[in-house]
């Protein structure tokens, strides 16, 4: 699918990998809606790329539907969905005080990362399926954002790894399900990237993490994630696939 002129939705588009992806899609000529819980930051990014900001809770059906409708009113129906919104956490099953890890923490991470992505995807797909097909009878494309933690989860990452592993497991059946509608589905599983969250860590910690990457020995750049996301849109034979973007990193237990 050609990106030029297409309407795109980017969840988590106000910062980090989402912001980089929103900017790259806009650079390539897409009409981008920046969906995020942080409206002020979403408006800032949207203003800079000529897009529209939509405050959105991806776990809430009404909120997500309203954001899709607002974006469509501004840009027309979307054919591109970048599912990038998500959170992370790390808690051992048995805490230092001997108590069990709080169930609420596990449920919150899975709800946002996995259920929220499914919610955004199902609502996008229902609208996208109504559109006229393009070349190759394609109507749309969506990208999930997993993590290398889906495969190499570290100590304390049960919730995060489970949520990202769920996205990996959902990729192929979603692609098969939506094939009849001409909607492709792929997942990117990034490694260690220089996101705002990562940059909050002390410089020595960042350098140590970078050295754990075989090559190149540096943190991934958000624009590299964005470039792959854009390539998935333009390469119509990419479907049902999970792509690791990690410099050959395999995470150690700790």
UniProtKB/TrEMBL annotation:
SUPFAM superfamilies referenced in this protein's UniProt entry, alphabetically: NAD(P)-binding Rossmann-fold domains
Is Oxidoreductase included in the keywords of this UniProt record? yes
Q: Name one GO molecular function term.
A: oxidoreductase activity
Sorted keywords for this record are:
Oxidoreductase
Database matches in PANTHER family: 17-BETA-HYDROXYSTEROID DEHYDROGENASE 14-RELATED, SHORT-CHAIN DEHYDROGENASE/REDUCTASE
Q: Family, per the entry?
A: Belongs to the short-chain dehydrogenases/reductases (SDR) family.
What is the protein named? SDR family NAD(P)-dependent oxidoreductase
Provenance organism: Ramlibacter cellulosilyticus
């Amino acid at each position: 699918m050609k990106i030029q002129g297409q309407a795109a939705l980017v969840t988590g588009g106000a910062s980090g990998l989402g912001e980089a992806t929103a900017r790259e899609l806009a650079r390539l000529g897409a009409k981008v809606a920046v969906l995020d819980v942080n409206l002020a930051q979403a408006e800032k990014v949207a203003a800079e790329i000529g897009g529209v900001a939509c405050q959105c809770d991806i776990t809430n059906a009404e909120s997500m539907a309203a954001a899709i409708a607002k974006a469509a009113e501004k840009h027309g129906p979307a054919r591109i969905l970048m599912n990038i919104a998500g959170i992370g956490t790390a808690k051992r099953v048995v805490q230092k005080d001997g108590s069990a890890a709080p169930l609420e923490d596990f449920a919150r991470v899975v709800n946002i990362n996995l259920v929220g992505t499914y919610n955004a995807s199902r609502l996008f797909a229902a609208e996208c399926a109504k559109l006229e097909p393009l070349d190759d009878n394609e109507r749309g494309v969506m990208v999930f954002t997993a993590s290398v933690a889906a495969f190499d989860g570290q100590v304390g990452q049960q919730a995060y790894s489970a949520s990202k592993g769920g996205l990996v497991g959902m990729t192929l059946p979603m692609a098969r399900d939506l094939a009849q509608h001409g909607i492709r589905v792929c997942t990117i599983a990034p490694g260690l990237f220089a996101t705002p969250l990562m940059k909050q860590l002390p410089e020595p910690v960042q350098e140590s993490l970078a050295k754990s990457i075989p090559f190149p020995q540096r943190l991934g750049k958000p624009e590299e994630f964005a470039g792959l996301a854009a390539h998935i849109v333009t390469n119509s034979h990419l479907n049902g696939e999970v792509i690791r973007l990690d410099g050959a990193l395999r995470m150690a237990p700790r």
